[in-house]
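Ticket #4471: structure export looks truncated?
Reporter: QA, pipeline team
Priority: medium

Steps to reproduce: submit the single chain below to the structure queue and open the exported record.
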Amino acid sequence: MRGLSPTRRRELKARAHALDPVVLIGGAGLSPTVLAEIDRGLKSHELIKVRVPAGDRTKREEIFAEICSRTGAQPIQHIGKVLVLFRENPEPSSGSREESLNKKRRGR
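Actual output as written to the record:
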């Protein structure tokens, strides 16, 4: 996966500022269920925040790296106990459900 330009990263940080965390990692840590929820959040929103439990910064950085490697997300920012992740959704394929809904709305 290619890296993000500094300009794009800055734009994403600005967008993420108003977001609330969509996933909270609990005492069980980074379980398959938590990873699946992160993946769903990235599919729906592209840019999400994840809150990690109290612990040292090194442990949070390890969790951040593992999430990114297992989900294909780009690390955007790590502030305290909050991680900001981005994964661009692929363009919808022709004939997709979204495209057909847009055509119906336009009366085609």
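Status: closed, not a bug. The export was complete when the record was re-opened. Leaving a note from the reviewer for reference: The longest strand covers residues 74-79.
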